[in-house]
């Protein structure tokens, strides 16, 4: 069941915001095109919060070791990480961001 995490206006362009939904740490990101994404907040390489990293195009880069994760698939696009992070469903309803804390199955 989706959870309202607040207004979309609270998420800045090319920034990540850490939220916890049903005990799951999630990085909510507004990419350079203005689309909102939600991926697991913990880097699979170093147990680091991804929401403290850098948003670049369609990816979120871990500040500690430079692994970059796709915002749409959760897969790492650079080393040293090789395991993906989960991706979560996002809906914008009446200006609020709703996140489904059940990880999506992504084939891309």
Order of helices and strands: EEEEEEEEE
- Cα(first) to Cα(last) distance is 24 Å
What value does the Rg take, in angstroms? 13 Å
Count of runs of 4 or more consecutive helical residues? 0
The top-level CATH class is Mainly Beta
The tally of strands reads 9
Helix fraction by DSSP (H/I, runs of at least 4): under 10%
Q: Sum up the overall morphology in one term.
A: globular
Main sheet: strands, sense, barrel: 6 strands, antiparallel
Q: Uncertain spans, ≥5 residues at pLDDT below 50?
A: none
CATH architecture heading: 3-layer Sandwich
How would you classify the helix and strand content by structural class?
Answer: mainly beta
Count of domains: 1
What is the residue-averaged pLDDT? 94
By CATH, the superfamily comes out as: Rieske [2Fe-2S] iron-sulphur domain
Could you tell me the strand content as a percent range?
35-45%
Q: The CATH topology is what? A: Rieske Iron-sulfur Protein
């Amino acid at each position: 069941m989706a959870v309202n995490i607040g207004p979309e206006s609270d998420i800045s362009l090319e920034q990540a915001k850490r939220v916890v939904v049903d005990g799951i740490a999630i990085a909510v990101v507004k990419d350079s095109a203005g689309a909102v994404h939600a991926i697991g907040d913990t880097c699979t390489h170093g147990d680091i919060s991804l929401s403290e990293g850098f948003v670049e195009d369609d990816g979120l880069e871990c500040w500690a070791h430079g692994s970059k994760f796709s915002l749409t698939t959760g897969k790492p696009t650079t080393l040293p990480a090789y395991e993906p992070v989960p991706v979560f469903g996002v809906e914008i309803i009446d200006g609020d961001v709703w996140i489904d804390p059940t990880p999506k199955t992504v084939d891309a």
